[in-house]
Amino acid sequence: MPKVTINGNTIEVPAGTSVIKAAQLLNIPIAHYCWHEGLSVAGACRMCMVEVEKMPKLQVACNTTVTDGMVVFTNTEKVKTAVKWALDFHLINHPLDCPICDQAGECKLQDYYMSYGLYTPEMNQPKVKKEKVVSLGDRVVLDQERCILCSRCVRFTKEVTKTHELGIFNRGDRSQLATFEGRPLNNNYSVNTVDICPVGALTSKDFRFKQRVWFLKEFDSICNGCSTGCNVTISYNQNGVFRVKPRVNHDVNGFWMCDSGRDIYKYTNKEFRLTQVVERSEKLGGDAVRGKPVALALQEIGRQLSQVIKNKGAQSVGLVWSGQYTNEEYSSMGRFFKDLGVSQFYHWKNNEKDFDSFDGILKRGDLNPNTAGLKKELAGLKSWADFEKQVSPLEMIFVMGPENFGAYSDLEENVKVIKKAKEVVWFTACESSLLKEFKWLIPAKSFVEKSGTFVNSKGLAQAFKAGLTIVPDAVSLEEAVKGMQESARMVS
Amino acid sequence: MSVVKRPSQKSKWYIPGVLTGLGITIRHMFFNLLHRKDIFTIEYPEERYPYSDRFKGNHILTVKKDGSLRCTACMLCATYCPAECISITAAEHDDPNVEKYPISYEIDILRCVFCGLCEEACPVDAIRMGPEHQTAALAGSRFVYDINKLAYRPNLKGGVLSHVDDEERKARGL
Prior knowledge:
By secondary structure, chain A is an alpha+beta fold.
């Protein structure tokens, strides 16, 4: 394995490694736009110039392979000057619209100008005008003036999605990024091009102008959109969650995530959430009453549960599980009910038809983050077909309902089946008019508000931590068990 | 250690002190009656002290030639504001040359410390500190100034024109 020395630090790397990758392993920053670890090398931006000993000219670090005994410098005056003038060329036709650009604050042009540039522009020609606000597809907007033609997005559609929607057309300073006519950028991975765009040329329609990035805080989490379990970073502030971005994990998702996964944050925000306990009882005239403290509600549910078990036996209680909760919740809730003698556990799968499908890149048909965990923690789950047959004699049903309603296209039909039971306690993060006839609706925590473990479809258990609180009254299933157990055991 | 001072016999002779004070007051009264122009105080609110035009008082949002807001909703003022009194909601404009504009721009004037950093931060001369300084109102909600108040209040006579003009900048190739 060749040894390379960069700025006096020596590292041994596998043969074929590029200098920029070796520098990354040593945490030495090298300016770059076009190089991306997940894509092929283009050598288009000429920003990653380094000085290599015994070579007469500066080399691009992205396309120079490490050889044994190579000595590289990234911080000499010669390198700094080269980077500075490369940056000057990038900025010749770049419009100064940072005030309205969404990338401002995380823009590499801004960052490198502050660390390498700081020059007075010497160009006195007017800037080349191109089209602004070009819609490339359902999710991405292009600003051709801001584009520095690094071709990362073009290589992404060529190499990762293999859909070839984007291309660079024309020559010289008239070169521009565009889609082919009648073929918009509508694949399910299109917003990744926004993430890898080092400048503000590609922006996401969903996030556009919602927040300035410096007002957002971030925490790491796991996407709950499907059973792949992509590692994500969630951006939020006091007004809620604003976007979800992929985080590098070579074992799970690499550098990317799908567009439908980016919509998961919507179900965690307040406007979609059930914020209070909803109770409906004959004593109260059959109307839904909101706002009972969740601790009192759980106590009462526990009491009712013990009454039902005492009078009708444990076989008259059933539990319906969706794969959207954590391992910890499954085990504590499962243990609680097994201790009471309840063993009728049913698995609510969504979209039975394409449950096992896979799109070849990341997205799976199983739109639950923890189906594998559910099966592991609660052995002997019965299927939905069994539930349809056995539902009518059941006195009391607990539904661990989906958190992400968008994933459950069969919700309306299944709600009708569940309605056949006499008493239903439904744990839900989302508010929905479909659920208004059930006896109890308990607000559940969304995945950004609780800590736990998801097991993905490959069997990899991934722990994640709570990042923020959106609905203060919401409970996780673990907390719900704690609320119910005292009153449930008192009578029985 | 506390020392209690008992009133001495001498301090009981307060009448000369009172008369001296009253004398000074009466002297000033007659002086002011004879020299009305030299009085320092004014009869507020009928009479108001003229402040300099450069006084940094209540904010003004400037407008473009067509009367729409100059502000591009870049939020630099809200970022810079040490009192955190500015809240802006941005939206996408139909005209691609405008792209981004504020649909709401609110300043909580009771939180504002009139430091002028918003004016300094603004890249397009969209917010200025105007010479008005009297902010009295009856209800608390009146102290949150919205776009109507900031840009189009009656005494601005249809808005103050910004120095930064998009067309002029375009013509210069910027």
